[in-house]
From TrEMBL:
GO terms for molecular function: phosphogluconate dehydratase activity. Residues 66-378 form the Dihydroxy-acid/6-phosphogluconate dehydratase N-terminal domain. Belongs to the IlvD/Edd family. Its EC number is 4.2.1.12. Residues 406-599 form the Dihydroxy-acid/6-phosphogluconate dehydratase C-terminal domain. Keywords: 4Fe-4S, Carbohydrate metabolism, Gluconate utilization, Iron, Iron-sulfur, Lyase, Metal-binding. Coiled coil: none annotated. This is Phosphogluconate dehydratase. NCBIfam families: edd. SUPFAM superfamilies: IlvD/EDD N-terminal domain-like, LeuD/IlvD-like. InterPro entries: 6-phosphgluc_deHydtase, Dihydro-acid_dehy_C, DiOHA_6PGluconate_deHydtase_CS, ILV_EDD_C, ILV_EDD_N, IlvD/EDD_N.
Length: 609
């Protein structure tokens, strides 16, 4: 193992010891020695049997047959989740064939951040992750399942499923992906059209026609944003079958992988000889592997929040120092948009996960000795799935890249570090992603602040031609307790245009940016946030702000004496807390932890707080 990777792993294990022991103890306490439904009183079990059709009732009355629950984030509106509509029937048939029974346990909500981007609904997006976690728990609360299949992909959905699923860590679980859509218009071309529209050079119909070419069919969006970062993370955690993350939606191989995953989960319950509970799969080493995978590919900054929360749900404590230290030694091996011109399909064609994992193992950057849903040891993930007679078989994966501009090697990486930096200073702590920046100079920005209390204020300033200047845009009151920490992806177009005009531009915010955001140097997830006393609330127009990734600095260059005399801005957040149902989230919003703690309310009243 690389010495830094081992050191960080050991530090996480030590830091987590008491929390992890308590979590594993509770998992041990609820393990069973027979089918869990057998513990129910007769009347309770009869209620479950009442909904059975076909062979379901006979199967559930047989104490030797495992019952698999299905938790799904299916809906027709989220393109990545639309294919899941057909999955339950496929899963039920496959589980039955494998000697088990499957029941649909419940659905969880699934927002599309693309649909809500810049709209009021986005203020509920991050909080929906907690709702998804709690919905997962409700679906499994009947205690009639011996294993679980989780169907979810996108930004808050997959993390929420794992956060909820880990409350049932004694059960084996497997994530089944839906796969990306085929490639449409190139991402760089899409962004050129967006800029043209923002500048008034094209009309609404031309913009819409371009967007439809980009997002054109069921499946995950093809850029390397949070959804595809989630899929990579899931495979690095050992929660997917090897090589299944980026097989296109609607293909025969995709369907065969779904059947194989259903058969696999049936074999992992405590009723058989291959018992593999979720608590064993989500381990400290698996979490480190996930961080390394994200760093090596320039993954979404959102995972610096999501992975913290997932780990916490398993009794594992990680922080941004772990991300930063691992990033410093992890070579950047993948260039796909926004870190390059290719997309997730280009990555798959160049060698995909098997080649990436092969390189990381050769360099000693990831742990091989861990438990996965595919068995013991991460070497299984060097294999790729292929279709033979409508059935999946796994064969040795590629050892050389199919495209050197997409996947490189540990001996000749694109960059010697992964690209996530943690900035610290009097403004607090923040995340900066440098892997998508065009040149090293942009990792240092020093300019006068231009302060906005909402993204709408910045948009209005752009349209009024007030952004033609060197500046660090400060967009505050966007943190978890402020307005729910929405993504501010729409602002990148305006700030990119300002950069194209020759100005020095930076962004500091306590909000989030999409995993697809590049080009503009930013310090995001700034904590403490403005609404809870962070210094962002005292920044004024014209104050000099320094963002220095090389030296990990985020500094407001105003004297302590002057800052002491300033009163923090008192911004009325009512307009972003009411309407479109946002008011119902007040109990969650007021209990959200800070960004570095995972920005979740779930742990606020537990001993994991």
């Amino acid at each position: 193992m690389h010495t830094t990777v081992q050191k960080v792993t050991d530090r996480i294990i030590e830091r987590s010891k008491s929390h992890r022991q308590r979590y594993l103890q509770r998992v041990e306490e609820v393990k069973g020695d027979s089918a869990f439904r057998n513990k129910l009183p007769c009347s309770n079990l009869a209620h479950d049997l009442a909904g059975c059709v076909g062979t379901c009732r006979a199967s559930l009355l047989d104490e030797t047959i495992p019952n698999i629950g299905i938790i799904s984030a299916y809906n027709d509106m989220v393109s990545a989740h639309q294919p899941y509509g057909e999955y339950p029937a496929i899963i039920k048939a496959s589980v039955t064939k494998a000697g088990g029974n499957a029941q649909f346990a419940g659905g969880v909500p699934a927002m599309c951040d693309g649909v809500t981007q810049g709209e009021p609904g986005m203020d509920m997006s991050l909080m929906s992750r907690d709702v998804i976690a709690m919905s997962t728990v409700i679906g499994l609360s009947h205690n009639v399942f011996d294993g679980v299949i989780l169907l979810g992909i996108c930004d808050k959905i997959l993390p929420g499923l794992l956060m909820g699923g880990l409350q049932f860590g004694h059960l084996p679980m497997i994530l089944i992906p839906g796969g990306p859509m085929t490639s449409g218009i190139a991402n760089n071309d899409k962004n050129k059209v967006r800029k043209a529209f923002a500048k008034g050079d094209i009309d609404h119909d031309e913009l819409l026609a371009s967007e439809i070419k980009a997002y054109h069919s069921p499946g995950t969006c093809t850029f390397y944003g949070t959804a595809n970062s989630n899929q990579l993370m899931a495979e690095m955690l050992g929660m997917h079958l090897p090589g299944s993350s980026f097989v296109n939606a609607g293909t025969k191989l995709r369907g065969a992988l779904t059947r194989s995953a259903a058969e696999q989960i049936t074999s992992l319950t405590h009723l058989g000889s291959n018992y593999t509970p979720l608590a064993q799969v989500i381990s400290e080493k698996a979490i480190v592997n996930a961080i390394i995978g994200l760093m090596a590919t320039g993954g979404s900054t959102n995972e610096t929040i999501h992975l913290v929360a997932i780990a916490r749900a398993a009794g594992i404590r990680i922080d941004w120092n772990d991300f930063a230290e691992l990033s410093d030694v992890t070579p950047l091996l993948v260039r796909i948009y926004p870190n390059g011109s290719g997309d997730i399909n280009s990555f798959q064609q160049a060698g995909g996960m098997a080649l990436l994992i092969n390189e990381l193992l050769k360099g000693g950057f990831i742990h091989e000795d861990l438990q996965t849903v595919a068995g013991k040891g991460f070497a299984r993930y060097l294999e790729v799935p292929v279709l033979e007679n409508d059935k999946v078989v796994w064969k040795s994966g590629p050892e050389q890249t199919g495209d050197q501009t997409i996947i490189s090697t540990v001996t000749e990486p694109f960059e010697t570090m992964g690209g996530i930096k943690v900035l610290s200073g009097n403004l607090g702590r923040a995340i900066m992603k440098i892997s998508a920046l065009a040149d090293g100079e942009k990792t240092f920005v020093e300019a006068p602040a231009m302060v906005f209390n909402s993204q709408q204020e910045l948009e209005k300033a752009f349209k009024a031609d007030k952004l033609n200047r060197d500046m660090v845009a400060v967009v505050r009151f966007q943190g978890p307790r402020g307005n729910g920490m929405p993504e501010l992806h729409k602002l990148i177009t305006y700030l990119s245009i300002t950069m194209d005009r020759g100005h020095t531009v930076g962004l500091v915010t306590d909000g989030r940016l999409s995993g697809a955001s590049g080009k503009v140097p930013f310090a995001i997830h700034c904590t403490p946030e403005a609404v809870t006393g962070g210094l962002l609330a005292k920044v004024q127009d014209g104050d000099i702000i320094c963002m220095d990734a090389h030296n990990s600095i985020l500094q407001l260059k105003v004297s302590d004496q002057e800052l002491e005399q300033r009163n923090p801005c008192q911004y009325d957040l009512d307009s972003s807390r009411y309407g479109l149902g946002r008011q119902i989230f007040a109990p969650l919003r007021k209990n959200l932890l800070g960004a570095e703690e995972g920005a979740s309310s779930i742990f606020a009243y537990t001993d994991e707080s």
